[in-house]
């Protein structure tokens, strides 16, 4: 299996070319090139265009300019390292960590708008936990769309996952209730609930989520232990507003940012974290089951700036 870092690098390859062009890959042919007024301008433009958000881009450019003032022989690779240091500082605390063993089962609720990647992510996540030796049950709480059950069943069959599902139009909260019971009696460590893609502006759909929570709390008053918003990373900074609405309605404990492989706006993750302060549990870097990776600040930042070490 490819290393964590190479998955990040591969997954972010649509975001990074502009940076590679300007900073040069560390150790690559451009990296030894000295900066000058025109490459600094180009750099500034690229930083503002990368969807990091104005605040972060400004901090990076200011630190690079200050270093350049001190030392006119500053090279592309030095600028890349300064950028990486700033980004790591901004992303401090953004990684998610828990051992998922505090409850029986530990309940993770995946929520988000249609097409953000919830169902795919639920399956990839279940597969990952299983590979790590944990017992996992999937609950198919998207009873709203006719094709939803088939989609999650296909994944479960393909990856050999334990699934609790009901019929189309069944009560989503009832599926959550049953899935919890099944996971508990089977002594699973983790229950992952896939939910319907509710538009955050439709309050009835938000109500359905709240009902899922109430029903779970009949079993375990601390459930769900994790409410993770699955966000399409290619929306760039537009996803911040979406995340804010879900956070206000449901109290998010983590984010999963998908489709970073399909976008040049992979920098938006920085703005989302900076704005909301919600840790990023996983990122989607492709369509293969192993492309859902725990978020690593080190790997992400180094991949963005082309630093390999
Ligand atoms: N390239 C890429 N595609 C993804 C990723 N995550 C999800 N998708 C695709 O996004 C589409 C919508 O995913 P789905 O799980 O059905 O979204 P849902 O409506 O939120 O359940 C599917 O075609 C997935 O294969 C990712 O990380 N990278
Ligand atoms: Mg779905």
Please describe what this structure looks like.
48% of the residues lie in helices and 13% in strands. The chain is of the alpha/beta class. The chain has 2 domains: 87 residues, SRP54, nucleotide-binding domain (Four Helix Bundle (Hemerythrin (Met), subunit A), Up-down Bundle), CATH 1.20.120.140; 191 residues, Rossmann fold, CATH 3.40.50.300. It has an 8-stranded mixed beta sheet, sandwiched between helices. The longest helix is centred in the first third of the chain and has 17 residues. About 2% of the residues have low confidence. The structure holds guanosine-5'-diphosphate and magnesium ion.
Strand order of the largest sheet: 3-2-4-1-5-6-7-8
CATH architecture descriptor of the largest domain: 3-Layer(aba) Sandwich
Report mean pLDDT, rounded to a whole number: 87
CATH class of the largest domain: Alpha Beta
Indicate the radius of gyration in whole angstroms: 21 Å
CATH fold label of the largest domain: Rossmann fold
Number of helices: 12
Helix fraction? 40-55%
Oligomer designation: single chain
CATH superfamily of the largest domain: P-loop containing nucleotide triphosphate hydrolases
Give the SSE string. Answer: HHHHHEHEHEHEHEHEHEEH
Largest sheet: 8 strands, mixed
**C-alpha end-to-end distance:** 19 Å
Structural class: alpha/beta
In one word, what is the shape? elongated
Number of individual domains = 2
């Amino acid at each position: 299996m490819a290393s964590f870092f190479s998955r990040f690098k591969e997954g972010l390859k649509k975001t990074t070319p502009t940076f590679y062009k300007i900073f040069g890959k560390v150790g690559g042919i451009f990296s030894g090139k000295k900066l000058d007024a025109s490459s600094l301008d180009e750099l500034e433009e690229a930083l503002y265009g990368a969807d990091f958000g104005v605040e972060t881009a400004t901090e990076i450019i200011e630190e690079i300019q200050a270093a350049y003032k001190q030392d006119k022989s500053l090279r592309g690779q030095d600028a890349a390292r300064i950028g990486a240091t700033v980004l790591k500082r901004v992303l401090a605390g953004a990684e998610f960590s828990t051992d998922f063993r505090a409850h029986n089962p530990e309940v993770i609720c995946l929520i988000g708008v249609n097409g953000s990647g919830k169902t795919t992510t639920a399956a990839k996540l279940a597969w990952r936990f299983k590979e790590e030796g944990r017992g996992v049950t999937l609950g198919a709480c998207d009873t709203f769309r006719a094709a939803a059950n088939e989609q999650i069943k296909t994944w479960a069959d393909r990856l050999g996952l334990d699934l609790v599902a009901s019929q189309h139009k069944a009560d989503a909260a009832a599926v959550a209730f049953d899935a919890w019971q099944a996971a508990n009696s089977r002594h699973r460590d983790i229950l992952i609930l896939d939910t319907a893609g509710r538009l955050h502006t439709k309050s009835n759909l938000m109500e359905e989520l709240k009902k899922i929570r109430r029903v779970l709390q009949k079993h375990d008053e601390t459930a769900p232990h994790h409410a993770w918003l699955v966000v399409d990373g290619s929306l760039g900074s537009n996803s911040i507003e979406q995340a804010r609405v879900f956070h206000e309605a449901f109290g998010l404990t983590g984010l999963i940012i998908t489709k970073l492989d399909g976008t040049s706006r992979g920098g938006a993750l920085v703005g989302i974290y900076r704005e909301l302060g919600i840790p990023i549990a996983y990122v989607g870097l492709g369509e293969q089951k192993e492309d859902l990776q725990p978020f690593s600040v080190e790997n992400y930042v180094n991949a963005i700036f082309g630093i390999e070490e």
